[in-house]
């Protein structure tokens, strides 16, 4: 009886060959093996996922020295070890403000570690540091600091009075943007035309627990008479909301005139000795940031609407 014939197609043969190829350890061995089997360079590039130049280098080196060509290592550099990262962060935590160059010098002299400014910057960014200008704060004298501490201590010992405080303040917003940082296209000039004395608008408002007044637009040279005109509306409204209200105002000259103090005292209690340069004690400062944002947005919308009207045929 004749033995059964086993038919193997070319596709099956190729499958068996490639399975053997995949068991080879390196890509150079796979290239040489496929070349000996008679595969074209195009077929080798498809299976080994490499370029024609790589195939040429592998075959030439194997032909000359019977050794396998090893490609240079590429891709991202290995990450810095955890110990060096910890040292960089410990240095950063010990300094109030610093540059990457300062950290680089400390690493070199104290820890004998060589690290580039770029790598130090990457480590800092990955650990919630940012490179930004320092925020300016008013410089206070010892007397001013003592007054603030004394003032804050009083309210800590009299918390029952805090809900009755109605915080008032004026704030000026210039129509000229005071932030000179913006996104621009590369290679374009980064200039901003600025007026020396830009036009501005002054706001006034009062806020408190479960209370907010209207926002008043006042003149930039507000006088005692104009201030009292505003108080006529505000104080009566506050008195209706809170009969035990305490009116707060800062140390501006027009606020401290005897006529204005008497005017307020006729309606409610008033805080006279509010410490100077104390925005952190006045919660209304959080309101001004949003008011100024919407004020600038309003100017932009007005300009867009006007330009749209004039652009119509």
Automatic annotation (TrEMBL):
It holds the Pfam family DDE_3. Residues 166-293 form the Tc1-like transposase DDE domain. One of its GO terms (molecular function) is nucleic acid binding. It comes from the Eukaryota. This is Tc1-like transposase DDE domain-containing protein.
């Amino acid at each position: 009886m004749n033995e059964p014939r086993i038919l193997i197609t070319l596709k099956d043969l190729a499958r068996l060959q490639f399975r053997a190829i995949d068991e080879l350890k390196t890509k150079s061995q796979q290239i040489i093996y496929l070349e000996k089997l008679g595969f074209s360079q195009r077929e080798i590039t498809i299976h080994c996922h490499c370029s024609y130049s790589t195939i040429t280098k592998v075959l030439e080196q194997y032909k000359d020295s019977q050794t396998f060509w090893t490609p240079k290592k590429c891709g991202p550099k290995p990450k810095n070890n955890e110990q060096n990262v910890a040292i960089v962060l410990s240095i950063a935590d010990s300094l109030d403000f610093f540059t990457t160059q300062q950290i680089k010098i400390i690493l070199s002299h104290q820890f004998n570690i060589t690290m580039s400014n770029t790598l130090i910057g990457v480590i800092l960014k990955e650990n919630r540091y940012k490179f930004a200008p320092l925020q300016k704060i008013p410089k206070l004298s010892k007397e001013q600091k003592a007054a603030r501490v004394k003032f804050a201590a009083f309210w800590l010992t009299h918390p029952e009075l805090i809900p009755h405080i109605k915080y008032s303040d004026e704030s000026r917003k210039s129509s000229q943007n005071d932030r000179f940082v913006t996104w621009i296209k590369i290679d374009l000039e980064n200039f901003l035309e600025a007026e020396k004395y830009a036009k501005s608008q002054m706001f006034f408002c009062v806020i408190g627990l479960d209370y907010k007044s209207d926002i008043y637009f006042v003149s930039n040279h507000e006088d005692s008479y104009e201030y009292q005109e505003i108080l006529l509306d505000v104080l009566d409204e506050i008195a209706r909301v809170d009969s035990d209200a305490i009116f707060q105002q800062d140390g501006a000259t027009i606020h401290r005139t005897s006529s204005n103090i008497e005017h307020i005292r006729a309606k409610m209690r008033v805080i006279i000795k509010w410490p100077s340069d104390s925005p952190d004690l006045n919660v209304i400062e959080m309101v001004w940031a949003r008011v100024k944002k919407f004020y600038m947005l309003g100017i932009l919308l007005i300009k867009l609407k006007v330009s749209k009207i004039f652009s119509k045929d």
